[in-house]
Write a structure and sequence with these properties.
By secondary structure, this protein is of the alpha/beta class. The chain has one domain: 3-Layer(aba) Sandwich (Rossmann fold), CATH 3.40.50.970. The protein is 33% helix and 16% strand. The protein contains ten helices and eight strands. An eight-stranded mixed beta sheet has the order 2-1-3-4-6-5-8-7, sandwiched between helices. Helix 8 links the parallel strand 7 and strand 8. Helix 1 packs across helix 6 and helix 3 packs across helix 4. The radius of gyration is 21 Å and the shape is globular. The protein binds iron/sulfur cluster.
């Protein structure tokens, strides 16, 4: 039985500011779930803290609003406990690239079969607009009145360096592309990262809808772009300073689950880890 996108929304009204980019990501998730007819009971969305963290509270499926920067450990645990679930983790750029940055790197490296959506507005919105690790250098906030003196992390290049098997980037104002990217991310066999430029209309007056429209390069307009090429993906990220949308990179490498299964097929090696008194004394 197919379900309409409206059935994936619950009775809770979003408290996001009017115009916030996160509305579009919420809608894209609902449309994707409806298109794929994901059973409500097989769909789990796990979020961290921040305006983005509210996402799981607005969906009619299993959800877990966890602690700051920890959506990925929870989501990976859920997927490992029940491989039949479609598991999505979601969080802001602060959640994923500051307090949770270590989890992001290791989740990418581990390649568990799940999707991570970053709601990237280059600012901490919930705490009233201070710089995040992805804020542009020179970005002025109440905590950095002369402008940020830190160079921002580059999420795409960071993900590629950690061994991403699927990297896509979307924009809240490109809703159709966003649905396509999330659909392909869910279908990917391994860890898929979708970094979505999602403007904070209240606290980031630099990286606005207009700014992104003027600066983003849409790879869907480039007929010859080949996302299977690692070097090409890195070149694209460097040339555009990370400001591109579409599937940046996709590689087929065995997921964590596949590697575990193949490891089960290997004979256990009986290692003798004892050490004699003489050997011990030589080491001291
Ligand atoms: Fe969205 Fe920014 Fe408002 Fe938070 S503060 S709901 S990120 S517009």
């Amino acid at each position: 039985m197919t379900s309409s996108m409206k059935e994936y929304s619950n009775q809770v009204s979003p408290t996001w500011c009017p115009g916030c980019g996160h509305f579009s990501i919420l809608r894209a998730l609902q449309v994707t779930a409806s298109n794929l007819s994901i059973p409500f009971e097989n769909f789990a969305v796990i979020t961290g803290i921040g305006c983005s963290g509210r996402l799981s509270g607005y969906l009619n499926c299993y959800g877990f609003h966890g602690i700051h920067g920890r959506s990925l450990p929870i989501a990976q645990g859920i997927k490992m406990a029940n491989k039949n679930l479609v598991v999505i983790a979601a969080g802001g750029d602060g959640d994923g690239f500051a307090i949770g940055a270590n989890h992001t790197l290791h989740a990418i490296r581990r390649n568990i079969n799940m999707t991570y959506i970053v709601l990237n507005n280059q600012v901490y919105g919930l705490t009233k607009g201070h710089t995040s690790p992805l804020s542009d250098e020179g970005f002025q906030t109440k905590s950095t009145p002369r402008g940020s003196i830190h160079a921002p992390l580059k999420p795409g290049i960071t993900a590629m360096s950690a061994g991403a098997s699927f990297l896509a980037q979307g924009f809240s104002a490109f809703p159709d592309q966003l649905v396509e990217l999330i659909t392909k991310a869910i279908a990917h066999d391994g860890f898929s990262l979708v970094n979505v430029f999602s403007p904070c209309v209240t606290f980031n007056k630099n990286n606005t809808y207009q700014w992104y429209r003027e600066n983003l390069v849409n790879l869907d307009d480039h007929d010859h772009y080949d996302p299977s090429q690692y070097q090409g993906a890195m070149d694209q990220l460097i040339e555009t300073d990370g400001l591109c949308t579409g599937i940046i990179y996709q590689q087929n490498r065995p997921s964590y689950q596949e590697r575990l299964q193949s490891e089960d097929a290997l004979p256990l090696v009986d290692l003798d880890l004892t050490i004699s008194k003489d050997e011990f004394e030589k080491l001291m």
